[in-house]
């Protein structure tokens, strides 16, 4: 198990992706605008980072980077056909999508860890206090009772963890998109940029009545997600459906490719 985890972490593409993700979060959390000696709410900073569109658009590209071309590279090199003969088409497809999802979740998690460490070091240097009790985008009236109780009791860390889990599902969704696209193209740039283009398309194409379909909902936990959609259950179901659709597309493509050979 430890060897598998190291496989996802100890490589140059993952290090680059984590660095870019952390840099995007840090650059948009607005901590530098806070006066010396004041408080900075780490939860509010994280939420604010993903409200800004350039972070929401570019982070999906970063988290897809380590595994975006895995399908294309393996199929072009002949390993994909060999692996499918050995383990079967379905297990192979599940493993590749699973690798991409796990890798992207690790990238997001480590990126947030870097952001968290940076905030503590920055605040220590400038004699600032780090807090984690901001209701942020919930609002007093709309905040779910459980969350509000946690925040009022000084347990904002629980809400911070919930937001991290949401961001990991956000990364997983876009890794599915990038990995599926890589099966249809040998162009690395096209596969990596596909999450950016699809998000741009969805932002304008999906009507308000179908807001629950938007992957942007996975960026953070707010009152709409918690009260209307069920919170983390919504994120889990969203990812399971995305995985099932992605797997179906991959299997159809692999089947058609096998018939042509």
Features:
261 residues; 2 strands; 2% strand
Describe this structure in words.
It is a single chain. The protein is mostly helical and 261 residues long. It has one domain. Strands 1-2 form a two-stranded parallel ribbon. Helix 6 crosses helix 7. It starts with a helix and ends with a helix. About 2% of the residues have low confidence.
Topology:
Blueprint: H1 2-9, H2 12-28, E1 39-41, H3 42-51, H4 53-64, H5 70-77, H6 79-87, H7 89-125, E2 129-131, H8 145-152, H9 156-182, H10 188-205, H11 223-229, H12 232-260
Parallel strand pairs: 1-2
Helix pairs in contact: 2-3, 2-4, 2-7, 3-9, 4-9, 4-10, 6-7, 7-9, 7-12, 8-9, 9-10, 9-12
Q: How many beta-strand elements?
A: 2
Question: What is the C-alpha radius of gyration, as a whole number of Å?
Answer: 20 Å
Approximate helicity band: over 70%
Q: Could you say which overall geometry the principal axes of the C-alpha atoms support? A: elongated
SS element count, helices = 12
Strand order of the largest sheet: 1-2
From the N-terminal CA to the C-terminal CA, the straight-line distance is 36 Å
Q: Kindly estimate the percentage of residues that lie in beta strands according to DSSP.
A: under 5%
Unreliable segments of 5+ consecutive residues: 136-140
Helix-strand category = mainly alpha
Average pLDDT level: 77
Total domain modules = 1
Name the helix and strand elements from N-terminus to C-terminus, one letter apiece: HHEHHHHHEHHHHH
Largest sheet: 2 strands, parallel
